[in-house]
């Protein structure tokens, strides 16, 4: 069984390692992958966004199944294009990927079907948007409609920040077409929870909940990043809250997508905020989260490929999805300066992993047989242990055995979860 996996980061490395646990898996072609995956996958120099080349490759190689991990190719219709040449795929169609591809679409879907989310207004006209922010409550949240590399959300603490955000999105077009429509929404507060799920459009199976740490610096300070670390499960996500989410958010969302003629098959990611008024949707993603995947998949006991195939075939209800007990923590090692300015090209040495340790390389290239850093987020160190405390300690121990110049990580990944788990910090 040969698999084609689209993507290149730590998330894709975690998917690759999990797929490899199935003994039937022979070659995994990773497009484009990264230097840290060599040995486990066959990296092919085709960009994740280059859908025509991905399809050409799939047609000319023995590919039995494809997994499309990143948002861009999904929103560009990679799954439709691969299906059209007869290759079964894990991932939503272009029409279903719209749930992430357009924030306006997602907000209107939630409004139409009564799914709890922040109140909002949509603007296509800068003047009208500027007028609105003169009177709306502050802080307020300004979001570009389309994909913006995770940077299209501005939490405006003042009216001036809101005006600046609108001008840069709608006038200066810093996110291109993604900013020609904006959503201005109510600022919500509460703990955040990420819930990834497998869904075939009828059945939805939530994965273990997780907590991301998006800010660059300790204490949730500094700029927003792609994610500096994660823990799973998320202690704020109690069984009662999980049931409420299933009844008021998860199932209503997949039913809504089906009713709209956009049945969702793949991994649907719910970014939730647990507000005083109950759980609300902050965002949907049409894919696995990064670095959530790096703590969720190590806790998956069942075979990932079997679940992915069942999802693609609409047979998820027949599939067993079992989770290990215990906790996972992933610490991301980045190059100092990330997410703004950072250097690349440092030699990267990776230690041998022990049981329950996982190294997920996000940004590295093989140059003349030497692994060198080539991204802002370089590598994730993930550990599964019986308790959250030991998972955190283990992840930092593993991170400490990974070496490259100018390595930087947050020192408090999991601390908030730890405090919450002990009854504090709500
Ligand atoms: P997103 O790119 O949609 O994940 O948003 C990035 C981050 O902005 C989220 O993880 C939240 O921390 C924050 N955020 C987004 N929308 C809101 C909101 N309505 N209220 C408060 N914070 C928000
Ligand atoms: N970790 C957040 C995301 O993948 O969008």
Topology (SSEs and partners):
Layout: E1 3-7, H1 10-20, E2 28-32, E3 42-43, H2 51-60, E4 65-68, H3 71-75, H4 78-84, E5 89-90, H5 94-101, H6 103-113, E6 120-123, H7 126-133, E7 140-144, E8 153-156, H8 159-171, E9 182-186, E10 192-199, E11 204-206, E12 211-212, E13 215-217, E14 221-224, E15 229-232, H9 239-259, E16 266-275, E17 278-285, H10 293-296, H11 304-313, E18 327-335, E19 357-361, E20 364-367, E21 370-373, E22 377-385, H12 388-400, E23 407-408, H13 415-421
Parallel strand pairs: 1-2, 1-4, 2-3, 4-5
Antiparallel strand pairs: 6-9, 7-8, 7-9, 10-11, 10-16, 12-15, 13-14, 15-18, 16-17, 18-22, 18-23, 19-22, 20-21
Helix pairs in contact: 7-8
The chain binds adenosine monophosphate and glycine.
